[in-house]
Design brief:
alpha+beta, two-stranded antiparallel ribbon, 7 strands, IL-17_chr, inflammatory response
Length: 164
C-alpha cells in the first residue's frame, strides 16, 4: 500500500513539473508573464552565468482540443446556490492564476428565483497541489504546496443546535 502511495506521489510530482515546464515555455513563446516572473526573483549579480546547451524542445499545442466537453457559462447561474469567480494571481506559483468561487447569497435560490434564507449556501472547497517558486542563493527551485480552492457553492440545510 505504501509503495503505491509513493509511486502515485512521484507520478504527481513529475506531472506537476512537466506542467510547469510547459507553462514556462508557453509564456516564453508568447512573451507574456516572463518579465513579471523574472522581476519577482531577480538574479543576484554574484551568480555565475548559466552554461551548457541542455535544452528540450516541447510542442505545447493541445491535441484533440475540440473534444472538450462544452459547459455553458451559465452553469454557476443555474445553481440553487449561485456563485461568481474571482481570479487570484501569484507570479511565484504554478499555476500562477487560480479561479476562486464566491457564493452570491447566504441563502439558496428557490424555484421562483427568490432567496430562501431557511437554507444555507455554502462553498465547496477542494485541496489541490501547486508549485511554489523559491530562491536559495543562486538556485531557483519549486516546492509542492497545498492550497484550498473554492470551486463552487451548494445548498444545504442549516445546522441547528438546541440549547437545554
Amino acid at each position: 500500500m505504501t509503495v503505491k502511495i509513493l509511486r502515485g506521489m512521484a507520478l504527481l510530482q513529475s506531472l506537476l513539473l512537466l506542467m510547469l515546464g510547459l507553462a514556462c515555455l508557453k509564456d516564453v513563446a508568447a512573451g507574456k508573464n516572463f518579465k513579471a516572473w523574472n522581476a519577482a526573483f531577480p538574479k543576484p549579480d554574484s551568480c555565475p552565468p548559466l552554461e551548457g546547451g541542455n535544452f528540450v524542445k516541447l510542442d505545447i499545442r493541445i491535441v484533440n482540443e475540440n473534444h472538450r466537453v462544452a459547459m455553458g457559462r451559465s452553469f454557476q447561474n443555474r445553481s440553487s446556490s449561485p456563485w461568481d469567480y474571482t481570479f487570484n494571481w501569484d507570479p511565484n506559483r504554478f499555476p500562477s492564476e487560480i479561479a476562486q468561487a464566491r457564493c452570491r447569497n447566504l441563502g439558496c435560490v428557490n424555484a421562483q428565483g427568490k432567496e430562501d434564507v431557511s437554507m444555507n449556501s455554502v462553498p465547496i472547497q477542494q485541496e489541490t497541489l501547486v508549485l511554489r517558486r523559491k530562491r536559495e542563493g543562486c538556485s531557483i527551485f519549486f516546492q509542492l504546496e497545498k492550497v484550498m480552492v473554492t470551486v463552487g457553492c451548494t445548498c444545504v440545510a442549516p445546522m441547528v443546535h438546541r440549547l437545554r
